[in-house]
């Protein structure tokens, strides 16, 4: 017997590729340390998650909603430091096509 | 031993009497003339037996008048009157017999005509015995009184029945417009015998009864048009002309008649309104069912209630009917809601301030609040679920934001005090639209928003052609009602749908795939039943290829499949036939495995796809068995039928239609909550074990000590009710205890 | 109107209600997203054994980007702990509330930090400039530019 798939209406969720697959399993997922909203949710000033409310990666490996971090860095009190480790914030260059982290299954 | 003085006194008296009777006529000629006059007059007056066959003696009326004159001169008229009345008394047995004869006849044949004959006959007796008017009104009155006193004393109770029938007949003749000129004579006869005064209550009751039966006959079940106008015309055309006989006797002109009939007229009018009011009150439940085809009846009821104070009756009757016919387990929630909405609309017509509605609605609202699927029903009708045509929402009613109950504004120039029968907790709801009223059954609108999300998720995941215009329009409408913020999550869901299509177009342009996934944002979709199912073979390859292309397109993101959701359209090429089928993923996964191997046991299959229950697996396999693709050789062992066996070996393609109404497995709000409530069951169980039985609010208070408990007492009530259905707890007089 | 702060504070409040406060800390009131009150005591060996203080948090709409204003409540029922970094009007000189604030901190984290500040105290005394500071202190301690001399 041959099985031909004619059309498959599947369902999937998207996740940010944080490189952290261990936490991918649990229900809430990781949260942004500033607003405490999950990464796949959106920051308090956004209404749409995903591309409209992206994440920002620091070289220190800490990840935040971009809008949350920029708000923090915009204050004098931040002294341009990462809120987690108080090291000077440097945004990481993302490795665009890392084939090892494309699917999580 | 009479003394001379006594003797002289007697002599003087005698002389005086003699002189009076003799009137100074010569000798005793005066006395003789008086004697003749007396004889003539008493003879003339003496009551006569009508049945006496001897012809009545003819009197010279002039002589009689002269005789009365003589007696009058002698001041002997009072004595004559006494003699007359005494004679009458002696003849009363004639009247008695007359009555007895006719009443006996009536009692045997029940024909009111016997009564008519009797009445006429009595009038005849009365007229015959009546002294001439020359003797003055005093004598006539005395005669009439004596006659009637006797008559009334001998009329048996059945006479009332007879006269009632007779009078009813006169009214009926007026109603059928076949008036009999005899009726006037009859009423005249009644008047002569003073029967109208004596039977006034009975006559009025005839009016009441005819009004009552007319209202019931003409108005029962007729609700489309207002009936009051027609009824009033009928009263004027039919009842008033009849009323003229008994209640406007002796009126010389229309105005006089009107004044005389005023009292009884307004009583009849009141009775007409009261009868209609009672009728509509008893019919109210069905009037509401028929709404809006029953608007006429509602207008009538409103007018009647203004005239007749039966508001409390209406509330009681309607509540009773609702309780009996609507608020029982057999009734569909949808029907209860529909009837509730109609009730709102109807009672607003009858009582715009809303007091009646408030009183009637309260039990319906409480009942609905306790039903588990109420919110789902309301939400389904808010977005028009397509199945039922009659939505709760009137399409003509403008969509408006939900209204919160407002405080009274006493500076409002249109402010009116609350109606007198408004209870202390009455809240005017005149300004609320229907949806606001329904949504306010619950304390918060959050539950609705959650249920909306579940419903939307189910609909979106079931969409096949990618057309989500309808859902988008619904969300826009709901935004107006519930506010932008509440619908934000739905917006994200809709955007996921359009994004998915865009992404799919891109992926297909890079590398065509049979897979067309809906990519959803987690946290924004209601809880989807989770599954760790693994798709085998080519399905897994498709997933991996698609995920790879996706991550090329969106480098920051990865896909996580929800393999148990969605549908697959397959073509199966077997040795002797080709089949097409539209199946859930589990069915697809299994048949894929049969392309590797012809024989599988259920356990082996389950092992290959991961976490599915045996029940689900057997159900999926049954789909293929039904299509004659698989056969269960022995229990739990399935074999692929490469060559068809059994009765349908035809090779025409078959398409298995998805089971109608099968929606994606999105957990309803209720399910989600039940899931979360399970955690608290242990607390409740412990509480009831230690304390025996507890009322709901005590359980609620104690649960508040449990970490993270944030349920309302209503939600707890719903949960306890569910637990009761499962036999875990029982409730009596509001006290919950463990076991049955 | 939901501001940034109310969303974040709602989450923190839910967490406090679900998981409870850190030991020794009790939520007294959180009726709005402007000011919350806690009671705080030091458990175990310390100079403040048996003493209970009352903390007031005031949030502006930018919380947690901006730090909360935190101080001990001083009224007829409660006083500020006698501590070299705590003024008698309740104001606290702690870097975590000033230049070392980070938006990843939370109300609970602040409470715990203050608890350990008290627990590690060696001698109960007021800051040296207490009288002068208290005389001119603004109502909101955030308006003060503290000089964090040690730790």
From TrEMBL, chain A:
It comes from Rhizopogon vinicolor AM-OR11-026. PROSITE patterns: ZF_RING_2 (PS50089). This is Anaphase-promoting complex subunit 11. Keywords: Cell cycle, Cell division, Metal-binding, Mitosis, Ubl conjugation pathway, Zinc, Zinc-finger. Residues 43-86 form the RING-type domain. GO terms for molecular function: cullin family protein binding; ubiquitin protein ligase activity; zinc ion binding. GO terms for cellular component: anaphase-promoting complex. InterPro entries: RING-box_E3_Ubiquitin_Ligase, RING-H2_APC11, Znf_RING, Znf_RING/FYVE/PHD. The keyword Cell cycle applies. Pfam families: zf-ANAPC11. One of its GO terms (biological process) is anaphase-promoting complex-dependent catabolic process. PANTHER family: RING BOX (PTHR11210).
Automatic annotation (TrEMBL), chain B:
Gene3D superfamilies: Cullin Repeats, Cullin, Chain C, Domain 2, Winged helix-like DNA-binding domain superfamily/Winged helix DNA-binding domain. It holds the Pfam family ANAPC2. GO terms for cellular component: anaphase-promoting complex. GO terms for molecular function: ubiquitin protein ligase binding. It comes from the Eukaryota. SUPFAM superfamilies: Cullin homology domain, Winged helix' DNA-binding domain. The keyword Coiled coil does not apply. One of its GO terms (biological process) is cell division. PROSITE patterns: CULLIN_2 (PS50069). Residues 402-605 form the Cullin family profile domain. Keywords: Cell cycle, Cell division, Mitosis, Ubl conjugation pathway. Belongs to the cullin family. This is Anaphase-promoting complex subunit 2. It comes from Rhizopogon vinicolor AM-OR11-026.
UniProtKB/TrEMBL annotation, chain C:
It comes from the Eukaryota. This is UBC-like protein. The keyword Cell membrane does not apply. PROSITE patterns: UBC_2. It holds the Pfam family UQ_con. Residues 4-151 form the UBC core domain. InterPro entries: Ub_conjugating_enzyme, UBC, UBQ-conjugating_enzyme/RWD. Keywords: Ubl conjugation pathway. It comes from Rhizopogon vinicolor AM-OR11-026.
């Amino acid at each position: 017997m041959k099985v031909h798939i004619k059309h498959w209406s599947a369902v999937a969720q998207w996740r940010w590729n944080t490189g952290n697959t261990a936490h991918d399993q649990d229900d809430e997922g990781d949260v942004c340390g500033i607003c405490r909203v999950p990464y796949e949710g959106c920051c308090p000033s956004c209404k749409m998650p995903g591309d409209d409310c992206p994440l920002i990666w620091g070289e220190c490996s800490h990840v935040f909603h971009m809008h949350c971090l920029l708000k923090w860095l915009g204050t004098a009190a931040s002294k341009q430091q990462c809120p987690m480790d108080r090291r000077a914030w440097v945004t990481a260059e993302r490795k665009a096509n890392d084939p090892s982290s494309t699917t999580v299954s | 031993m009479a003394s001379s003085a006594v003797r002289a006194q007697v002599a003087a008296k005698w002389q005086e009497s003699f002189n009076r009777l003799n009137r100074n006529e010569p000798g005793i000629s005066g006395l003789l003339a008086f004697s003749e006059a007396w004889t003539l007059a008493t003879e003339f007056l003496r009551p006569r037996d009508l049945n006496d066959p001897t012809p009545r003696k003819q009197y010279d009326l002039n002589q009689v008048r002269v005789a009365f004159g003589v007696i009058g001169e002698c001041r002997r008229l009072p004595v004559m009157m006494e003699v007359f009345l005494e004679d009458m008394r002696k003849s009363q047995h004639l009247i008695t017999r007359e009555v007895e004869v006719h009443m006996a006849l009536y009692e045997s044949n029940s024909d009111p005509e016997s009564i008519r004959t009797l009445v006429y006959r009595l009038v005849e007796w009365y007229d015959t015995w009546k002294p001439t008017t020359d003797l003055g009104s005093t004598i006539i009155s005395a005669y009439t009184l004596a006659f009637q006193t006797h008559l009334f004393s001998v009329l048996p109770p059945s006479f009332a029945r007879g006269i009632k029938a007779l009078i009813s007949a006169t009214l009926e003749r007026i109603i059928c417009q076949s008036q009999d000129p005899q009726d006037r004579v009859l009423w005249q006869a009644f008047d002569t015998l003073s029967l109208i005064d004596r039977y006034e209550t009975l006559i009025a009751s005839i009016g009441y009864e005819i009004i009552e039966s007319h209202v019931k006959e003409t108005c029962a079940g007729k609700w489309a048009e207002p009936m009051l106008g027609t009824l009033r015309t009928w009263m004027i055309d039919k009842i008033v002309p009849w009323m003229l006989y008994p209640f406007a006797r002796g009126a010389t002109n229309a105005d006089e008649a009107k004044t005389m009939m005023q009292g009884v007229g307004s009583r009849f009018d009141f009775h007409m309104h009261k009868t209609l009011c009672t009728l509509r009150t008893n019919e109210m439940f069905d009037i509401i069912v028929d709404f809006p085809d029953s608007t006429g009846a509602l207008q009538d009821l409103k007018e009647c209630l203004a005239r007749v104070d039966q508001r409390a009756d209406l509330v009681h009757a309607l509540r009773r009917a609702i309780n009996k016919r609507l608020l029982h387990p057999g009734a569909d929630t949808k029907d209860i809601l529909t009837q509730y909405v109609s009730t709102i609309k109807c009672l607003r017509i009858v009582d715009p301030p809303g007091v009646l509605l408030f009183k009637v609605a309260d039990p319906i609202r409480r009942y609905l609040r306790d039903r588990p699927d109420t919110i789902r029903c309301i939400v389904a009708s808010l977005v028009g679920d397509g199945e039922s045509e009659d939505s709760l929402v009137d399409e003509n009613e403008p969509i408006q934001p939900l209204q919160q109950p407002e405080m009274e504004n006493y500076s409002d120039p249109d402010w009116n005090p609350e109606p007198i029968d408004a209870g202390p907790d009455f809240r005017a709801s005149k300004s609320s639209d229907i949806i606001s009223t329904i949504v306010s059954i619950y304390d918060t609108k959050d539950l609705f928003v959650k249920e909306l999300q579940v419903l939307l998720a189910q609909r979106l995941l079931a969409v096949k052609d990618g057309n989500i215009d309808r859902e988008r329009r619904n969300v826009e409408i709901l935004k107006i009602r519930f506010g932008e913020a509440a619908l934000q999550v739905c917006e994200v869901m809709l955007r996921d749908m359009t994004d998915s299509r865009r992404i799919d177009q891109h992926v297909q342009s890079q590398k065509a795939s049979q897979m067309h996934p809906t990519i959803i944002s987690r946290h924004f979709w209601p809880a989807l039943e989770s599954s760790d199912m693994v798709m085998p073979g080519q399905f897994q390859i498709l997933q991996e290829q698609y995920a790879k292309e996706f991550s090329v397109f969106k480098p920051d993101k990865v896909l996580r499949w929800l393999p148990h959701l969605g549908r697959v359209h397959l073509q199966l090429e077997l040795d002797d036939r080709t089949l097409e089928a539209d199946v859930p993923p589990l069915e697809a996964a299994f048949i894929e495995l049969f392309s590797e191997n012809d024989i599988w046991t259920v356990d082996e299959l389950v092992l290959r796809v991961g976490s599915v229950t045996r029940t689900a697996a057997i159900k999926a396999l049954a789909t293929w068995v039904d299509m004659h693709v698989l056969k269960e050789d022995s229990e739990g062992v399935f074999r692929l039928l490469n060559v068809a066996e059994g009765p349908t070996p035809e090779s025409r393609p078959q398409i298995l239609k998805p089971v109608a109404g099968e929606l994606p497995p999105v957990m309803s709000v209720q399910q989600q909550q039940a899931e979360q409530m399970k955690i608290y069951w242990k607390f409740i169980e412990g509480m009831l074990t230690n304390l025996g039985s507890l009322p709901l609010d005590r359980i609620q208070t104690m649960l508040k000590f449990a970490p993270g408990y944030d349920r309302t007492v209503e939600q707890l009530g719903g949960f306890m009710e569910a637990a009761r259905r499962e036999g875990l707890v029982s409730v009596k007089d509001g006290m919950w205890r463990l076991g049955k | 109107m939901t501001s940034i702060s109310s969303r974040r504070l709602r989450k923190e409040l839910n967490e406090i209600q679900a998981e409870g406060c850190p030991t020794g800390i009790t939520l007294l009131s959180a009726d709005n997203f402007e000011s919350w009150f806690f009671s705080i005591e030091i458990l175990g060996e310390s100079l403040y054994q048996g003493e209970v203080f009352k903390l007031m948090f005031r949030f502006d709409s930018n919380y947690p980007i901006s730090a909360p204003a935190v101080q001990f409540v001083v009224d007829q029922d409660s006083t500020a702990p006698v501590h070299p970094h705590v003024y008698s009007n309740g104001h606290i000189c702690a870097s975590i509330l000033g230049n070392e604030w980070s938006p990843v901190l939370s109300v609970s984290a602040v409470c715990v930090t203050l608890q350990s500040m008290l627990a590690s105290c060696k001698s109960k005394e007021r800051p040296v400039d207490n009288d002068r500071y208290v005389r001119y202190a603004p109502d909101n301690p955030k308006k003060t530019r503290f000089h964090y001399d040690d730790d």
